[in-house]
Amino acid sequence: MKYGFVKVAAAVPHVQVGQCRYNAERIVTLAEQAANAGAAIVAFPELSLTGYTCGDLFGQRLLLDEADRAMGLLVERTAKLPILCVTGMPLAVDGKLYNAAVVWGNGKIYGAVPKRYLPNYNEFYEARWFAPGADADRTEAVVAGCRVPFGPDLLFEGKGVTFGIEVCEDLWVPMPPSSMQALAGAQLLINLSASDEMVGKHHYLQGLVAQQSARTVAAYLYCAAGVGESSTDLVFAGCGMVAENGILLAESERFATEEQLLLAEVDVDRLDGIRRRTSTFRYDGKIPPFRRLPVECRPDDESEPVLRQFDPWPFVPQEIARVDERCTEIFNIQVAGLAQRLRHTRARTAVVGISGGLDSTLALLVTVRAFDRLGWTRDRIVGVTMPGFGTTDRTYTNAINLMRALRVTVREISIRAACEQHFADIGFDAAERGVTYENAQARERTQILMDVANQTGGLVIGTGDLSELALGWATYNGDHMSMYGVNAGVPKTLVQHLVRWVAMNGEDENACRWLLDIVATPISPELLPPDEKGQIAQRTEDLVGPYELHDFFLYHFVRFGTRPAKLHWMACRAFDGKYDAGTIKRWLIVFLRRFFAQQFKRSALPDGPKVGSVSLSPRGDWRMPSDAVAELWIAEAENL
């Protein structure tokens, strides 16, 4: 598949306990369905060839021989399918019986992995029948007449993906085998299970699977027994799950009366990118040696459609039930960072430039909440509005009314006369609407804020956000500079969301009206005069592109090291119906050019709190030379 995606499947067949040939037929049918659906790897439940609940029948040689013959039937019947299969069966080796996972495909058996840890509580006293795989000393076993690699030390290497296998209880122990498998290079971890159902257990299991995928920075494919297992004392729900780096991608229906085939696409390229950037993805002890077995995975097919969807707003919380929790957490991180800086510097005031735009609004809201938390009166917050050549009545009115509603000290200082004098001093024709005209205003505002802070014994609170830092959409030593930048870790799409959230859930009801109008106002630096109708003439997104696209690019480029071709392909899927491929390509090139060219501004950033997994602080998450050349990345984008 494209760009490092691998389609995997969890298949829960209908089993008849002790009827190996019947079970093999069901496994073949589901393997065919998985192959037809484009899966490269399909997993079946623990002991699914015999049924997990055979009990003392596992001691019957007849059952073991029949399981072995059924395994041969599986290999024969699936020989022409372009898919790798993993199923569970009892395997006799040197007078011991093992609960094993067998990997086969393309007409041959690649290897067998025994279950390392056996449960010993009443309903699952597996040691009655099986030997622990951790003690297995044989390196080979005979399966369906073939001598194949055997042991808990096997990894299977296909084109583009390496996978390891553990069986049920192995996941529940303090150090699951999959942890070492991942450290040894496995990006996909497969668990064949037969976990019974109890009240509350499934929720715990979901967390266990998701957390193991997160700790190992891997994809985790889980497949458990279900339909047809004996219900003498226990019930099996037939659960399939696929998780990737802490996120549950897909889950099958539980307690279904029909067979289940769960399909999901895991992004191996993304996992590799995270691992390369995660310095703690290592083990200080000795990683046990693994035997690496080459396997024939499904051949790459660029035409194979990828069904996986991508969140167009990766920074914005999407789960309705958790929106309040996430927004509160983000807001509290900003507030806590600012409160500590104010305490540490013994500041008497906080000075915030208020434009009537989103960023300064969020900065003011954070400052107000920090003062409330410190028990300081809000009149010690100095809100300064500085009308200039591009200020409109709408933004001016919103700025004044918001400050009054929040009960902060309001100061209005026009920058017009100062800028005109400055233009005269440097011999600049104010009729020219270029970078000098615009940046002079931004630097004049910053000078005013810095001087007011000195005058009042306070700190200048920065308003610039993460998206502006990525694009360099800030005037160097103008709005680029402050004494503490509370929005430095918050991208524009999240700023909009947070301001709206505060408006709808905040304590200051009087501010709600103004906050909602600020959210609805076009984003603009307001450095050029308004149009003939007095409306904003300079719209940021007309100049640099839609922030929702740039935030999408930023998240995947920085967080996962995603290359431009894949970024474009993902964005086309995420924004299908809103932006065409050509438009996305155009703004991707703009993003890359600006991201590389503007690093010098990020190299001189003031302090500011990290909020999420993406940060551009030169002291932490993003360390890039200011003179890095963008040619390689831009060339790939231009050739799309």
Fold topology:
Blueprint: E1 5-12, H1 20-36, E2 41-43, H2 61-77, E3 84-93, E4 96-105, E5 108-114, E6 140-143, E7 146-149, E8 154-158, E9 161-167, H3 177-183, E10 188-193, H4 201-215, E11 219-224, E12 240-244, E13 247-251, E14 260-267, H5 268-277, E15 291-294, H6 323-345, E16 349-353, H7 358-374, E17 381-385, H8 393-405, E18 409-412, H9 416-426, H10 435-456, E19 458-462, H11 466-471, E20 484-485, H12 492-505, H13 512-520, H14 540-544, H15 547-560, H16 564-574, H17 581-597, H18 599-602, H19 631-638
Parallel strand pairs: 1-2, 2-3, 8-15, 9-10, 10-11, 16-17, 16-19, 17-18, 19-20
Antiparallel strand pairs: 1-14, 3-4, 4-5, 6-7, 8-9, 11-12, 12-13
Helix pairs in contact: 1-2, 6-7, 7-12, 8-13, 9-10, 12-13, 15-16, 15-17, 16-17, 17-19
Keywords for this structure?
19 helices, 20 strands, 640 residues, alpha/beta, 7-stranded mixed sheet, 6-stranded mixed sheet
Report on the structure:
The protein is an alpha/beta fold and 640 residues long. It has helices spanning 20-36, 61-77, 177-183, 201-215, 268-277, 323-345, 358-374, 393-405, 416-426, 435-456, 466-471, 492-505, 512-520, 540-544, 547-560, 564-574, 581-597, 599-602, 631-638; strands at residues 5-12, 41-43, 84-93, 96-105, 108-114, 140-143, 146-149, 154-158, 161-167, 188-193, 219-224, 240-244, 247-251, 260-267, 291-294, 349-353, 381-385, 409-412, 458-462, 484-485. Strand 19, helix 11 and strand 20 form a beta-alpha-beta unit. The two termini are 18 Å apart. The model has no long low-confidence stretch (mean pLDDT 92).
